[in-house]
Write a structure and sequence with these properties.
This protein has about 325 residues and is mostly helical. It has a single domain, classed as Rhopdopsin 7-helix transmembrane proteins. The protein has a two-stranded antiparallel sheet. Helix 11 crosses helix 12. One of its GO terms (molecular function) is olfactory receptor activity.
């Protein structure tokens, strides 16, 4: 009996350490990916601010807004991911401080990409009117519209939370997720409706701009063909970003087939829905652009060139 008890305790201890090591590995993976992506994105923002030529081009303004949006989204999402492992539950007030920026920036991304596609379409289809339609002032107005649309999507949920929930709930601890905080049935239905509306509007915009560019590309040069490929890349990026819209039912479906793999399912869906789309932005948009890539290399390679400079001195 003593041997059986010892074996049982050893098995429990071994399983605990396996779970602990696995959890640490997941968090380290997410943090390393987040730091790497944010470093590249921060370098892009530094490049944009350093060279005035980019501040006069609506395309680069929209792109750098997307990059800044990705930094905020990735930082808040990773913080929520780590807190879910470290504390499991946190106070509702602290959860709101983290989850609201994450929701705002998640909603912003497909809208920003849709406007980037529209700008690309204008530059190809009506180039003579491009300088009149796409100005720096109007670009910043578009960015304001993006944030306003996202606000209209999430602020009603916040007002419902403050009006319906008791003060005890606001002071309680919950698993920090959108459904755990905004528990009203109206909020859940409105979330699904807004996700569907966003997805339809962005998809229609990308399809329309692609068809317009495809029509022009029949008798066009390489720049127009590049614009056509850019719209396809926009579509792929939106597809990655909008996977977060189907995340709740997808997790339920996967848990139904793999009931013991909830932790692994949450980790996989988090990386696919939250991290990978932010990894794609700097590669898809920043490195494909010859002008931006030329200036970006100077700063990305600054760390690698530093030892050479020290040795030569």
């Amino acid at each position: 009996m003593n041997l059986t008890q010892v074996d049982s305790n050893a098995t429990i201890t071994l399983n605990y350490w396996k779970t602990f090591v696995k959890a640490v590995g997941k968090n380290v993976t997410v943090v390393v990916l987040g730091i790497t992506i944010n470093y590249i994105n921060a370098t892009m923002i530094h490049t944009f601010n350093k060279y005035h030529i980019f501040k006069l081009n609506p395309r680069y303004i929209l792109f750098i807004h997307l990059v800044l949006n990705d930094i905020i989204q990735l930082s808040t999402s990773i913080s929520l991911f780590i807190f879910s492992y470290a504390f499991h539950t946190i106070h509702v007030s602290l959860c709101l401080l983290l989850i609201l920026p994450a929701i705002f920036t998640t909603q912003n991304t497909p809208l920003n990409i849709a406007f980037m596609a529209a700008e690309c379409c204008v530059s190809v289809c009506i180039p003579l009117r491009y300088s009149y339609i796409c100005t720096v002032k109007r670009t910043y107005i578009v960015i304001g519209i993006i944030w306003a649309i996202s606000s209209l999507s999430i602020l009603p949920d916040l007002f419902i939370l403050l009006a319906v929930e008791s003060s005890q709930f606001l002071q309680s601890r919950v698993v920090c997720s959108r459904d755990s905080v905004f528990r009203s049935s109206y909020s859940v239905k409105k979330r699904d409706a807004s996700h569907t509306l966003f997805l339809v509007l962005v998809s229609v915009t990308l399809l329309y701009t692609y068809c317009q560019i495809l029509f022009v590309a029949r008798c066009a040069d390489s720049d127009t063909k590049k614009a056509r490929n850019t719209i396809l890349i926009h579509g792929f990026q939106v597809l990655l970003c909008t996977t977060v819209y189907v995340q709740p039912p997808l997790i339920k479906l996967l848990v139904y087939f793999f009931p013991e793999g909830l932790s692994d399912i949450n980790f996989a869906t988090f990386v696919i829905n939250q991290v990978l789309p932010r990894l794609g932005s700097p590669i898809i948009y920043g490195l494909r652009d010859k002008t931006f890539r030329k200036f970006l290399k100077r700063h990305l390679c600054a760390v690698n060139n530093l030892p050479k400079i020290i040795r030569s001195s």
